[in-house]
Write a structure and sequence with these properties.
single chain, Rossmann fold, 10 helices, elongated
Length: 273
Amino acid sequence: MSIIHDIYLISDSTGETIDRIFLALKAQFSKIDYNHHQFSFTRTENQILKILELAKKQKEPIILYTIVDDKLAKHLEENSKKLNIPCFSVLGDLISNFSKILNQSASHIPSGQHTLEENSKRIEAIQFTMTHDDGKMIKDLEKADIILLGVSRSGKTPTSIYLANRGYKTSNIPLISENSIPNFLKEKPKLKCVIGLTVEPIRLLDVRKNRMNALKEEHGTDYTNINKIEIEIKKAKETFKKYQWPMIDVTRKSVEETAASIIKIYEIKNQNA
């Protein structure tokens, strides 16, 4: 029976860099069996200790990290060493170190991360996401990895496209009212990874005004009425709470940061499934 390694990817930012590096790294080892755990926006010693508490419970944990703060990186390395957990900065000689741990010779295939299987998965995710944008094709919603709900202009589409490029089949649905939510989701709210996107009303007002200006349309509608927007956001939050769907406030987040938070929620849900 092959050894299953638990790979912990720790980043002080979105985690996209270390994720891509790990894709390149694992492509060098065709026989590796692993579980993948990603921790983004890790910026405190307390967060590090919580991750190590999880890692030490595994039989074969390995930690890879990208942390800019030298003090925090040293804290991670020292505490990992105390627990006898292999811990590497991505700036180190990863292929050599992994070769020793796995007792395998690296293939040294250039650009090994771009395998046909991974490209196929990404293309399939992009095609799915594009055909399930803005509430389209809800009849096969159960095929989605992630379902985003939110009021108009809350960043659903760009976030969905970003997730698709990471290989996640994503559907997004505009939340006009509770009645606009497909019955499939209301009847089985915990079956899929459903996430609600919220935004501060004043920020949403600015976004919508810019949208109306771009379309050269007048602003005198409920769409750009701050009182109506506040009610709209309030009702959306109430709906998310009713069905116990996690919420992400995107007001001060980039698309990359929002996507990283969504991926984290998705991974936790899958681990607990």
